[in-house]
Amino acid sequence: MILKNVHVLDVVNEKMIRNIDLSFDDGIINDIGNLSGNDEDYTYEDCYVTPGLIDCHTHIFMEGHADTIGSMNAMTTTDFIVTAISNLEKHLKSGVTTIRDVGGVNYYDLELKKQLHNGNIIGPDLFAAGKIVTMTGGHGHFIGREADGQTEVRKAVREQLKAGADLIKVISSGGVLTPGVDVNAYQFNIDELKAAVEEAHKAGKKICTHCHSTQGIKNSVIAGIDSVEHATLLDKEGAEMMAETQTYMVPTLSAVENIVKKGIEGGIPEYAVKKGKEVYRRHIESFKLAMDYDIPIAMGTDAGTPLNYHGKSSGEILLMIDNGMSVMEALKTSTINGACLIGIEETHGSIEVGKYADCVIYKENPLEMVETILNPLQVIKKGEMIL
Ligand SMILES: [Zn+2]
User: Fold this and answer.
1) What is the Å distance from ligand 1's center to 219 Cα?
2) Least CB-packed of 59, 124, 163, 306 within 10 Å?
3) What separation in Å is there between the alpha carbon of 169 and the centre of ligand 1?
4) What is the pLDDT of residues 6-30, one digit of tens each?
5) C-alpha 289 – ligand 1 centre gap (Å)
6) Which CATH class is domain 2-51+350-385?
């Protein structure tokens, strides 16, 4: 298949390549240039093509109900599976062709990977963490694998790897959605984090950590974690450390934004709204600090958290832009940077010959009218038209 006379966003060289043809074969981009051949029934002449978006922080088993824990406690196995299948489809149709899901339920995420692979369901390429590894009573314990001390943490990580996890997710601080834990307090100790990192890296897997706390971020960097999720209370020392080690930040601005904006009136539990409000301003400052220090950033929505729905990753991109990121940088953050963080930059994240034909087509030039990303004309997943 050939897309004739389109404009292609080159996120690697940061430029729009105008009036060019793209050819796909067997799910792969096999030529870019002035090509002869037919464009079948698809006419996207003069439209704009970006790489498929990569959302590095999702929770496909969470629907985005106002009361996360209450709703999850009431869900049956069927509810979880149906919810996840529906969320995967929403992501894909919105232009997200790859997700990194960071906190599954009962290893259903790893089962769903097989269903996606077999073509029984549709969705983005899914990189899944299995169960969150957290300390006893730590953030996310209600779906996670609790572990304390180096030996148990090693075992917990090994269990996820044995089950087929693509990456490991640990918890370095309290969280907004778990009642009774403090976002300012660090959770796993450095020796526990180091043990987790060693086990993940030995197996050739990446490891990310949920972390709000200032000290927790530093502990995570010292331990060698690959990405700090949220990094809400980052200070200058932590920013220097992240820049020095090129540790990724996945800011997930949508999560706190939705909790604070929709609040108790939206049905979100009071304890979560209170904690969200406490960190809201600091979170945005931390995001700006990360940009100032050239910390690598990858886009993640935390979709599934209260009133933060799947299929809205473009909203996270707009939020990053609202808070000072350039449109080009935000699109890089949401494509090639995500691929680098996941470790799939050889096959995903940009429109280049030899990579998967994962693209989104927009009517307008997103560099000039970024709102166009809210309404893709077409999503292409491994060469197949989705819309
Ligand atoms: Zn999350």
Assistant:
1) 19
2) 163
3) 10
4) 999 999 999 999 999 999 999 999 9
5) 21
6) mainly beta
